[in-house]
């Protein structure tokens, strides 16, 4: 390993004056992690509520995407690592003060749970499926009888995963744009919203789609509320936070944030969903793609802009 | 649309004269809010410049035409016309949804095929795009916005666009009716 010696905190390439260490991998992971968390959250929620029959896509079919989404997200994180072969060291300790430790462990728990969840519904998707080994059949029976309990574990960890995608940034105290506790809930709500979009896209059941659409409208409302309060908090804070907010209020991220995230990613799809609820025929793919695009864009902008904001001038 | 009755058409489409009146109000609002007129071909131009610049920056640098739109400070896509066109697409989508016209189809006369219609419309669009660059603007940017600001060039552009359309329509009528 090549050693680097730092004499001063100033004028360090890629760290000062601007952080330049996180590229496309991080926002892609934050998006995929939030989406996976959202899908698992709704699957668990409607299992706990005993609505598997009314909400088949939410509880069963959408979750089939989750293991793939998580693997792709983890792959992005792995590509981002500088010393790839040392990733396993995250699993040699439990450090409550380490955001990466939290993420690594939450993913370590929720990824196998999502795989087991999907496996327990595999026979419903492919009736001729055979597990070949008796112990696997036995395990499947155990999972099916205990699904309600697994759902409770899953809902807990899905919320942690959803919040964690925001905490990864907000735990970064040296960047004023990220250092706000609103990012956790904001990323959770945004992840839940992208999940409702995917479920709406996949379901063929009109009642399920309608319910998911209503939930999504509620989530979009909460997201807008949180974004307004995010800026309120920045503007009421010290000069560095005000400078951070200015990036979005006239600065270089103004157009991309307001046009792509707020208008095309939240308000416009919300309007289309309202029209659809009022009986206007809207191809569902349009609001869905816009919501997913808005969610991805939001994470790209937050990661990109956050690296530019700073305390030292 | 050839199967639908005139009455049905009336319900699905706005009266064209009223549509034109609304377009005028949009133009007025644009002038009031942004201090400049509408445009359409500018967005296509920005997209083309950006696409060429992504694929071959060396070519853009050499070309007299492309290079004037590239600078270190301003991204070619950072042009309000690009965002205006995004809004046009979104608005057209909502309008189509409200009128129940959201489906994939090629509208053409029964005497020609969809293929002819698509090829001829694309060729026409292509030629209009080139023409708009020679004329420094299209129907929206040069003619409509120009006339609204009482510019002589705007009136000339409008007369040239529609005058030549009347002149040549007869020769090309078999391609669309």
What does this structure look like?
The complex is a heterodimer of chains A (313) and B (177). With 313 residues, chain A is an all-alpha fold. Chain A has a single domain, classed as Formate dehydrogenase/DMSO reductase fold, CATH 1.20.1630.10. In chain A, 67% of the residues lie in helices and 0% in strands. Chain A is globular and about 65 Å long. Chain B contains nine helices and no strands. Chain B is globular, with a radius of gyration of 19 Å. Chain A binds chain B through residues 255, 259, 264, 268, 271-272, 275, 280-283, 286, and chain B through 78, 83, 86, 90, 93-94, 97-98, 100, 102.
Summed up:
The complex is a heterodimer of chains A (313) and B (177). Chain A has 313 residues and is mainly alpha-helical.
Features:
heterodimer; A: 313 residues; mainly alpha; Formate dehydrogenase/DMSO reductase fold; 12 helices; globular; B: 177 residues; 9 helices
Total strands of chain A: the figure is 0
Largest sheet data of chain B: none
Instruction: Give the helix level of chain A as a range of percent.
Output: 55-70%
The CATH C-level class name of chain A: Mainly Alpha
Structural class of chain A: mainly alpha
Question: Which stretches of chain B are poorly predicted, pLDDT < 50 over at least 5 residues?
Answer: none
The CATH H-level homologous superfamily of chain A: Formate dehydrogenase/DMSO reductase domain
Q: What characteristic shape of chain B results from the CA principal axes?
A: globular
User: Cα-atom Rg of chain A, whole angstroms?
Assistant: 21 Å
Q: What is the CATH topology assignment of chain A? A: Formate dehydrogenase/DMSO reductase fold
Distance between the termini of chain A: 32 Å
Largest interchain contact = A-B, 12 and 10 residues
Identify the CATH architecture of chain A. Answer: Up-down Bundle
Strand/helix succession of chain B:
HHHHHHHHH
Mean of residue pLDDT of chain B?
Answer: 86
Order of helices and strands of chain A: HHHHHHHHHHHH
């Amino acid at each position: 390993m090549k050693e680097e010696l730092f004499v001063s905190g100033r004028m360090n390439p890629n760290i000062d004056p601007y952080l330049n260490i996180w590229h496309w991998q991080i926002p892609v992971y934050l998006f995929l992690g939030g989406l996976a968390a959202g899908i698992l959250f709704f699957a668990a929620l409607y299992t706990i509520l005993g609505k598997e029959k009314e909400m088949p896509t939410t509880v069963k079919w959408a979750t089939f995407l989750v293991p793939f989404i998580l693997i792709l997200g983890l792959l992005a994180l792995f590509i981002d690592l500088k010393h790839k072969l040392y990733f396993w060291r995250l699993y040699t300790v439990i450090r409550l003060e380490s955001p990466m430790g939290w993420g690594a462990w939450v993913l370590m728990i929720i990824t196998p749970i999502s795989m087991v969840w999907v496996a327990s519904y595999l026979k419903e998707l492919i009736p001729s499926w055979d597990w070949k080994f008796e112990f696997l059949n036995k395990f499947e029976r155990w999972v099916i009888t205990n699904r309600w309990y697994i759902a409770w574990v899953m809902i807990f960890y899905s919320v942690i995963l959803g919040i964690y995608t925001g905490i990864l940034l907000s735990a970064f105290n040296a960047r004023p744009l990220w250092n706000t506790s609103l990012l956790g809930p904001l990323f959770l709500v945004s992840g839940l919203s992208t999940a409702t979009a995917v479920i709406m896209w996949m379901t063929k059941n009109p009642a399920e789609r309608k319910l998911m659409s209503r939930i999504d409208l509620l989530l979009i409302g909460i997201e807008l509320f949180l974004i307004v309060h995010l800026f309120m908090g920045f503007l009421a804070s010290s000069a560095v936070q005000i400078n951070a907010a200015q990036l979005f209020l006239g600065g270089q991220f103004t157009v991309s944030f307001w046009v792509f995230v707020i208008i095309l990613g939240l308000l416009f799809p919300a309007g289309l969903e309202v029209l659809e609820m009022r009986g206007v025929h809207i191809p569902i793919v349009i609001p869905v793609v816009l919501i997913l695009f808005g969610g991805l864009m939001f994470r790209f902008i937050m990661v990109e802009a956050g690296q530019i904001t700073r305390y030292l001038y | 649309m050839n199967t639908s009755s005139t009455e049905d058409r009336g319900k699905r489409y706005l009266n064209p004269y009223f549509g034109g009146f609304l377009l005028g109000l949009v133009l007025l609002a644009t002038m009031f809010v942004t201090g400049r007129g509408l445009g359409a071909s500018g967005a296509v131009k920005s997209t083309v410049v950006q696409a060429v610049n992504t694929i071959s920056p060396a070519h853009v640098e050499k070309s007299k035409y492309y290079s004037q739109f590239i600078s270190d400070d301003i991204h070619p896509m950072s042009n309000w016309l690009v965002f205006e066109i995004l809004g046009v697409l979104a608005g057209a989508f909502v309008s189509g949804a409200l009128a129940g016209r959201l489906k994939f189809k090629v509208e053409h006369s029964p005497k020609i095929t969809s293929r002819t219609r698509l090829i001829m419309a694309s060729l026409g669009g292509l030629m209009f795009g080139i023409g708009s660059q020679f004329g420094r603007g299209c129907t929206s940017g040069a003619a409509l916005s120009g006339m609204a600001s009482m510019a002589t060039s705007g009136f000339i552009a409008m007369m040239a666009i529609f005058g030549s359309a009347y002149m040549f329509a007869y020769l090309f009528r078999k391609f669309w009716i």
